[in-house]
Each structure stands twice: as C-alpha cells, then as structure tokens.
Design goal:
This protein has 248 residues and is of the alpha/beta class. The protein contains seven helices and six strands. It starts with a strand and ends in a 13-residue tail after the last helix. The relative contact order is 0.14.
Length: 248
C-alpha cells in the first residue's frame, strides 16, 4: 500500500484511527462540505462543525493533503445559481488557507436517487433540476473565479464538459501524491471507475448500504433498513477496536 485516500463528510469520529495510522502510512483526504439544506443531507453535522474538523485535519496533516469537495451541485425550485455562488463563496472564504484544491460536479440522477427525488417532490414540493450542460459550464466558470480569489484551484470530477480554461480534470486518486509524500513514483496507469473518471489504479475498500448520513442524492445507499441494521450492529459491538470511529 503506497497511501490511503479517504472520503467523508465527517472525519471527526475517525481521528482515533488516523492517529494510529499516521506513524506507518501516508494518506490524504477528500472532505465534502456543500452547505446544502438538511432535507438533502439529513445525517450530517452542521456546517460549522464540518469546517472546524476540516481545519483540525489541515493543521495536523497539512493543506496539501486536504481536498475540499463542493459536490454535488444541486439546483432546484428552491436553490438557484445565486444561492450556489453565495454558499460557495462563504465556504471558500472559511476554508481558505486550509486547502488548495476544490473538486466540483453536478448531481447525477442515478436510479436510486431518482426514487428519492420523486419522494421529496411529493412530500415537500422540492423539485431537483436536471441542469443543462451549457448552464453547468457557466456556473462552473463563475465558481472558478471565486475559487481563485481564495487560493483554490478548481477541478471537475467525471464531467469533462466542465474542463476548460481554469477548470482542470480531477484525478481523485492521484499519483501526484507520490511526490507530495516524498515517495518514489510508481508507474501507475489510469484506471477509471466510470465515464470521465481520471483516477489512477487503486482498490476500493468501501461498502454499499453502510453510511448513516443518508444523503438523498447518494448512489451507494439504496436500503435504509440495511443501513440502520449495519450501523446499529457495529456501533454496539464491544469487540471493535475502533468503536469511536462508528459514533457518527
């Protein structure tokens, strides 16, 4: 293992694990903070706590290891582009100096997500838009200008139609980190996981139907009963060495 790449929207409970790993392994972080309404991300800590956690990681491990993900970008009958710009600027200003990279993408209407989108519309009148590509480009270009003001380079994940001008193609699993970690670079090839993916060769250690955040747009969760069963089982398992990491 050359290094680990961790994704989360709440790294605070993971600190005990990181402290035990940092002596032996290299790693970096994809930390998603969107500031979306709770109705879309019901299981997350509030934005203030997320920003504080982001800062703690940055101070401990360095801003080069921190990647801020502002994705997915969601437009709806209640969230317009001005709201997106305002929220992005607020977050960028508070994360400035704690990271140098920001990755964006627009929401994908996966089959599982569409079912939840329809339920939201029926229950709460919230209509998730399928934003036209040209509008996505316009929004992304505007975000790139804000990002630059706060010291971020902007990258697009799996959406090559956004890659132009100041917006670069994302490599979420990036062999550039060999240099950042001072390792001898290995001849890794690109190994995309889906169309437009720029990732290099890696092995996924994640699992479906395990995350209690229950974000409405998520492709990895399909059955809330299975999520609750999994989470409660492991939260209550006293044999776990890192029980704290499951107390989300």
């Amino acid at each position: 293992v050359f290094f680990f790449v961790f994704w989360s929207k709440n790294f605070l409970p993971f600190f005990p694990v990181l402290k035990s790993m940092e002596k032996y392994y290299h790693f970096y972080f994809h930390f998603t903070i969107t500031g979306l309404p709770e109705i879309l991300e019901p299981g997350l800590p509030d934005t203030q706590q997320s920003i504080e956690t982001f800062g703690k990681l940055s101070r401990r491990y360095g801003k080069q290891r921190m990647i801020w993900r502002f994705d997915p970008i969601i437009l709806s009958n209640r969230i317009n582009r001005d709201h997106i710009f305002k929220r992005f600027r607020e977050l960028a200003s508070r994360l400035s100096g704690k990271s140098q990279r920001c990755i964006i993408s627009f929401v994908q209407h996966y089959a599982r997500a569409r079912v939840r989108f329809k339920a939201l519309q029926k229950k709460h009148g919230l209509v998730i838009e399928n934003t036209p590509l040209e509008e996505q480009r316009e929004i992304a270009y505007h975000l790139s200008g804000i990002a630059e003001q706060y010291g971020f380079s902007l990258y697009a994940c799996c959406q090559d139609h956004l890659v132009e001008g100041p917006i670069k193609k994302a490599h979420c699993i990036d062999k550039e980190f060999f240099n950042i970690f001072g390792l001898k670079e290995e001849p890794l090839g690109q190994n995309p996981t889906r169309k437009g993916c720029g990732c290099f060769d890696s092995r996924d250690i994640g699992s479906y139907n395990t995350c209690p955040h229950k974000c409405v747009y998520c492709y990895a969760n399909g059955n809330t009963t299975r999520i609750d069963t999994f989470y409660n089982k492991y939260k209550n398992d006293n044999t776990l060495r890192y029980k704290a990491s499951l107390n989300w």
